[in-house]
Design a protein that fits this description.
- This protein is mostly helical.
- The protein is built from 20 helices and no strands.
- It folds into 2 domains: 211 residues, no CATH class; 249 residues, no CATH class.
Length: 484
């Protein structure tokens, strides 16, 4: 056991451990979320789900405004020097404590300006509490990520999903609906904060009296990340806000289901980017070659895996929506198909963001996201209105807007990306396209046998073809995961 512990503590095995922990966490939380996904949206209906989505969107935007982008700064700085954890976490907590009251007041102002119903106002008020607790919890999670102790991020995520799945189903059964679910989220947020404080004991301290220069550094140095986070959050949530203004809670609910599925499909880049950011930041310190060596394999892997995920989700969209959500969500099918086609560009964009952050070029990405945050609402304004008037489903327009914007971001990101991809990368991607097309044919031929058969056959056929075509080289992956 001592030998095993020593092996796990070596830097060369830490990345493998972190990826395994995060992947395991995603598998567990995905399974737990399945209970929520199957039952809760059907019980709430499109209107109730729309109310929940609007509250999440509003507090999400305000929370990012209040967050100052400190989380990403902490990850980078702590990854480069673990001794900085105590002063940085203490300073971040001080800054966050000062913005909680204005942030909650901003939610109250929205309730007044939007003339929210009594139920919607209560849901927003509870969501504001969740937002405030998240602002305090994030510095601890950033520190855990910086010291590459990803298991604590996984524990919190599993706890959240487990309670939400079990208690969420129970609450809607006894009739508490949207208010009860948001109240439950508030209780979970308290528990997660307390656990993060407990887990930090022995891992890093907290300097409760930060120096003035440290405070100035955290506020000023986090500004580029704050700007990026702000425009990204506005960009991600503006479609739901605009849908609520231009259609109804029901249409927002039709959009919420596919966007939740779309978010779940991003598990690959989320896992790898979370695990790789500290490693990429440390590699950049050793020069461009080191950054390329660290980043190229994971970037290729993300691009390759995005193809079967996108194709599979698009092919099973109709049967999935019908089986899981029922006929009241039938208008969500084409929305899910469009969002599935967005997956490859989004996978790539997530990884480009991490590479640019690691190489201290986050300002360039901030400009890209700033432009996207301007262009996307303009496209939404046109497409949501068009599809709402002609098909009574503005959610299709919102999905098309996201697809168009993500592809545009990917084109710009390819130009900004440091030299990593080469002709070998292009050949691997071509082989991945062949494997994906073959997988799609298998799924289509077996579509009459039901959702489970479709998904299982698609996964097995792509895996076999990927190995046969050397899209996924098992020896290379092993060498990568066990490298420094």
């Amino acid at each position: 056991m001592a030998a095993l512990a020593a092996a796990m503590s070596r830097p060369r095995s830490r990345l493998t451990r972190n990826v395994a922990v995060l992947a395991g966490s995603q598998a567990v939380t995905w399974s737990l979320s399945l209970v929520w996904t199957v039952f809760v949206p059907r019980a709430l209906g499109p209107s109730g789900l729309g109310e929940l989505t609007i509250a999440t969107a509003v507090t999400g935007v305000i929370g990012v405004v209040a967050g100052f982008g400190i989380g990403t700064l902490l990850v980078k700085e702590i990854a480069r020097d673990h001794e900085q954890a105590a002063p940085l976490v203490g300073t971040a907590l001080l800054v966050r404590a000062g913005v909680i009251v204005p942030a909650v007041a901003a939610v109250g102002l929205y309730i007044l300006v939007a003339h929210s119903s009594r139920e919607q106002g209560l849901v927003l008020f509870l969501a504001a509490g969740v937002m405030a607790l998240a602002l305090v919890t994030q510095p601890f999670q950033a520190a855990f990520q910086g010291i590459e102790r990803m298991e604590y991020l996984a524990y919190g995520d599993i706890l959240t999903k487990a309670v939400m799945s079990g208690a969420g189903v129970a609450l809607v059964i006894i009739g508490y609906r949207v208010v009860g679910i948001m109240g439950m989220m508030l209780v979970i947020s308290v528990a997660v904060l307390l656990l993060n404080v407990w887990w930090s004991r022995g891992k890093f301290g907290i300097a409760w009296r930060p120096k003035s220069d440290q405070l100035r550094f955290v506020v000023l140095a986090s500004f580029p990340y704050w700007t990026t986070g702000l425009v990204l959050t506005v960009y991600l949530w503006i479609d739901s806000v605009m849908l609520s203004a231009m259609s109804s809670d029901v249409v927002v609910g039709w959009y919420a289901v596919p966007t939740k599925i779309f978010g779940t499909l991003l598990f690959v880049p989320v896992i790898l980017s979370t695990a790789m950011l500290p490693r990429l930041a440390a590699a950049f310190r050793d020069g461009a070659d080191a950054l390329r060596t660290a980043g190229k394999p994971v970037l290729e892997l993300v691009l390759v895996l995005s193809l079967p995920v996108a194709a599979g989700a698009a092919l099973v969209a109709q049967s999935f929506i019908a089986t899981v959500y029922g006929p009241s969500f039938a208008p969500s099918v084409w929305v899910l198909v469009i969002l599935a086609l967005t997956v490859p560009a989004t996978y790539f964009d997530i990884m480009v963001n991490q590479v640019l952050i690691a190489s201290n070029r986050q300002v360039a990405w901030t400009k890209v996201m700033g432009a996207a945050a301007i262009v996307n609402p303009l496209i939404n304004l046109i497409l949501i209105r068009y599809f709402q008037e002609h098909q009574q489903n503005g959610a299709i327009g919102a999905a098309l807007s996201l697809l168009t914007t993500e592809v545009g971001i990917a084109i710009v990101g390819l130009r900004l990306l440091p030299p990593m991809l080469d002709s070998g990368s292009a050949l691997r991607l071509a082989r991945a396209i062949i494997a994906t097309a073959s997988m799609a044919l298998v799924v289509w031929m077996l579509s009459r046998f039901g959702l489970i058969i479709e998904v299982g056959a698609g996964a097995v056929s792509f895996a076999a073809l990927a190995v046969a075509l050397k899209v996924l080289d098992l020896r290379e992956l092993k060498a990568w995961t066990f490298s420094r």
